[in-house]
């Protein structure tokens, strides 16, 4: 069985998009061609959603020059998805309560990582990891050289010492997003107070939808352990959260990805 692989770095959205791909059905040239399509897509995302580009749809929306119904369909889709995330988080994620107006940055990276994975899947790439600055979309598991497939292993670093991995999640298919003050410092605003969020030191959410994992991780940075109740909602039944508390330095988790661990603690 021939295995074609590729690893790529794309500079976009003010960060680096890392992509790992493997396939047993298409060759490296076909993977490269799919990556070219990805590059076109991520530039389109930047042109539509950047808050730094004056000509972007989001910038025009924030200045009141256009309404949401006049925006491209993907912007309208993200707007609707952000409304849903705001509802599920009781307003802890609220991109409308941001200085300058609507800013979906806390949703878009995860959403776009999912879209990138879709492009690659449609091209015939079965084993995919897309890392958009801490928002990861994973498909098909990690194909080893011998043909075996193991889950992607995603490590969560200590926010106080990024060289230390505190735990590893194993995922075949799904998304995982981590919010914290790792690189950008304190940058998440509490929509309830307008001040810097102080609920959690680090928040990781796993689930099937990258945009929603991104948004809920942001929400948990605001609420801390008070946000555990979010995951009792039926809409979040497939989602899990693992957070490091800001004050005690302890960690807590909830959801199916941690069910065995939590049951063991209880017993």
Brief description of this entry?
With 267 residues, the protein is α+β, with helices and mostly antiparallel strands.
Report Rg. 19 Å
Helix content: 25-40%
Task: Examine the coordinates and then state which fold CATH places here, giving the name of the CATH topology.
Answer: T-fold
> Span between N and C termini?
46 Å
Query: What pattern of helices and strands is seen along the backbone?
Result: EEHHHHEEEEEEEEHEEH
User: What's the shape?
Assistant: globular
Could you describe the largest sheet, including whether it forms a barrel? 8 strands, antiparallel
Proportion of beta-strand residues: 25-35%
Name of the CATH homologous superfamily: ApbE-like domains
Total strands: the figure is 12
Strand order of the largest sheet: 1-2-3-4-9-10-11-12
Number of helices: 6
Set out the fold topology.
Blueprint: E1 4-12, E2 15-23, H1 28-49, H2 57-62, H3 73-88, H4 105-122, E3 127-132, E4 135-139, E5 142-143, E6 149-150, E7 152-158, E8 161-171, E9 174-180, E10 200-207, H5 210-223, E11 240-245, E12 251-254, H6 259-266
Antiparallel strand pairs: 1-2, 2-3, 3-4, 4-9, 5-6, 7-8, 9-10, 10-11, 11-12
List keywords for this structure.
12 strands; 267 residues; T-fold; alpha+beta
């Amino acid at each position: 069985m021939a295995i074609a692989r590729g690893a790529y770095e794309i500079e976009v959205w003010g960060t680096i998009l890392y992509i790992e791909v493997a396939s047993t059905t298409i060759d490296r040239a076909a993977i490269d061609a799919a990556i070219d399509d990805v590059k076109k897509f991520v530039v389109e995302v930047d042109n539509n959603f950047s808050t730094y580009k004056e000509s972007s749809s989001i910038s025009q929306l924030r200045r009141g020059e256009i309404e949401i119904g006049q925006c491209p369909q993907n912007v309208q889709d993200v707007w609707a998805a952000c409304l849903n995330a705001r509802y599920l988080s009781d307003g802890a994620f609220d991109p409308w309560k941001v200085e300058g107006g609507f800013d979906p940055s806390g949703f878009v990276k995860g959403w776009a990582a999912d879209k990138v994975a879709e492009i690659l899947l449609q091209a015939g790439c079965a084993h995919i990891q897309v890392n958009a600055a801490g928002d990861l979309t994973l498909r098909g598991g990690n194909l080893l050289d011998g043909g075996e497939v193991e889950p992607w292993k995603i490590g969560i670093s200590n926010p106080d010492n990024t060289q230390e991995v505190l735990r590893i999640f194993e995922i075949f298919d799904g998304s995982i997003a981590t919010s914290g003050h790792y690189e950008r410092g304190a940058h998440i605003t509490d929509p309830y107070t307008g001040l810097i969020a102080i609920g959690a030191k680090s928040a990781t959410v796993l689930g099937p939808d990258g945009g929603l994992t991104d948004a809920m991780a942001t929400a948990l940075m605001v609420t801390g352990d008070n946000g555990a109740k979010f995951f009792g909602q039926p809409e979040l039944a497939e989602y899990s959260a693992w957070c490091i508390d800001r004050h005690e330095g302890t960690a807590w988790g909830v959801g199916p990805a941690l069910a065995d661990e939590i049951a063991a603690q209880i017993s």
